[in-house]
Amino acid sequence: MAADLSQIVKAYDVRGVVPDQWDEALAELFGAAFVRVTSATAVVTGHDMRPSSPGLSAAFARGAAGQGADVTEIGLCSTDQLYYASGALDLPGAMFTASHNPARYNGIKLCRAGAAPVGQDTGLADIRALAEEWSDTGAPRPAAATGTVTRRDTLDDYAAHLRSLVDLTGIRPLKVVVDAGNGMGGHTVPTVLAGLPLTVVPMYFELDGTFPNHEANPLDPANLVDLQKRVREEGADLGLAFDGDADRCFVVDERGEPVSPSAVTALVAARELARNGGTGTVIHNLITSWSVPEVVRENGGTPERTRVGHSFIKAEMARTGAIFGGEHSAHYYFRDFWNADTGMLAALHVLAALGEQQGTLSALVDQYDRYAGSGEINSTVDDQAARLAAIRAAYEGREGVTLDDLDGLTVSAADWWFNVRPSNTEPLLRLNAEARDQATMIRVRDEALALIRQ
């Protein structure tokens, strides 16, 4: 393997093609480096259903045990199930998954005890440096005593913890279609939803890391088409779609229409605030809908705006003691889940909110979905900085318009806003626009796109 690991060690995780970019030998070095950097005496590991995952996870465990750490392997799990284990067992953790990436990819999401994230600035750069060094010089010196490797099943405990955080006792019978995308939702959903008054219609629950039916990335509308069709055919009350490692959940209403993750964020925020006596801070990134801070304030809470990305959300959750956080990408973070993200808990909140009343999901969501949004539109550009400068020049000094630079460039007026953010990994600019009505949103969106693409 090449000693330069910059292509696979990303800002927040390890991710690359197996075996071309990394393999079990390198996974073993990552395990050893993780223990060295975190000074862990014990770690917990889990993995998804990809063909390469069990071998990579076992190799990581060997490397960690070789440095003296006792390893608890929880085996097949969702990413939020690994976070549960890290929190409940108070151990650093390693989850082997490439989330929604194609089958040939795999990766590692690392956390410290209590599911605290590990990124470039919090240990990942040091782990990479050690793995690179050992790739050149040979395996690290083993510890005086090798750690143990034991197996532990946490699925029932994970499900019980989630169920303890949402009151589902009074819900009416519901019919729900669940598309697991051949990912880990097929493993966790049956246990989490067991015993509830639900008729669950399963789609693609078979664990298959080659993703034979569609990519396990519900953020792409093409991957929701099967679920939308099935919801309408079944006359279901709603549909749920999970990504490959089942940490994100997307919701479809009874008409088969996608529910905006901003609306889900607002709905869950209102419920979490009620659960906490009508007070608390709620984190939202700067491209969630205006609806989110409005609903938070209406329910007695304090909204806190932050940059896009789980490391920023989790840092703000910890700094402010926030009870909940949500992103436009359908990541939902809960204080009572160690500030970690769990789409499954957000799904339980949606089921509870719908089941506590007699109306449809579309009617329920209307109160949380108040504006016209563009969704995220990506444009390939030759020079990100030059395009952003051109947008700034076009709007700077306009009456009633404000600009801010929290994350990319946000341009706001009384009845509309848009944000343009550069991708960190590709020559792209990402546009999100919102307005009080559809016609204004289209005008603002198209004006911004013209400047981006000129």
TrEMBL record:
GO terms for molecular function: intramolecular phosphotransferase activity; metal ion binding. Its cofactor is Mg(2+). Residues 376-448 form the Alpha-D-phosphohexomutase C-terminal domain. Residues 7-133, 156-256, 266-371 form the Alpha-D-phosphohexomutase alpha/beta/alpha domain. Pfam families: PGM_PMM_I, PGM_PMM_II, PGM_PMM_III, PGM_PMM_IV. Belongs to the phosphohexose mutase family. NCBIfam families: PRK09542.1. PANTHER family: PHOSPHOMANNOMUTASE. This is Phosphomannomutase/phosphoglucomutase.
